[in-house]
Amino acid sequence: MKARSVLHEEHIYRMIEQTLIPPVTVTELNPDTIHSATSRLGDVAGNAGERYQLDSMLTPAQFNRLPSQQETTWIREYFMTTTVEGYDQMIDRDARWARRWTDADPLAPIMATAWQDPASVGALFGVDLLVVQEGAVWRQVPGRPGLVFDGNLVDRTRDLLIRHLPWDVEQTPLEQTIFVVGAFARLGYLYDNRSARAASQAAGMIAGGLLRAAMASRRRAAVVDQFLDYPLNEALACDGVDRGLLTMIRTAPPQSEPEASNDHHS
Predict the structure, then answer these.
(1) Disulfide-capable partner of 101 in 108, 140, 149, 172 (CB 3.0 to 4.6 Å)?
(2) pTM
(3) Which of 152, 143, 155, 22 is nearest to 96 (CA)?
């Protein structure tokens, strides 16, 4: 077994410049991502990401079973139409299960991309945007400046979120965080084995729109993509199979910048 060691910058540079084949007599029981990525040819099993790329490749038969363009359009439009109609009806009845964004909501200028940018609106077929407001979890409505109730946030689940977010919530409260959740079950109607890939593409599109909206409103925002899935999914009532957290957008006022080693800042 090779001992785990701290890598210096020069050593990291040398490693990422080439793919190394480790000696067959050496087994590293707990490699970090740098060692694993550099020595990948020595691993006959490969990592989960590599196996997914192989397992999700379409065969001719699978390709022929995918819905037609007309069917795909109908499914997408059905989801968008019914979601919007349900929200509009709840707003007309002044139901407590729906609420509008207001100018007083700090996230409203950033979330505006979900009803102003056509590409971001379309991406909301593949992902749900969840936010914590008024002591509950709410879901953004595609194409509308509003939210629908998604679930309660009791003390236990709120504590679970606070404990497992990879930053200090005193710097970035829950109410300043946007949770980007993959809608894998919904995507399964269109993409079958490629649902995870489609969810990642949708998450990238919506994250880009949110970051652009943050810059336009002179807000600070960062994509956070390293976190423990199980506790955060549990807190957000996601099972990780039909729905699962993909990434988070951490926001802050212009004068303070989020500080997290795994953040990608706008």
Answers:
(1) 108
(2) 0.81
(3) 152
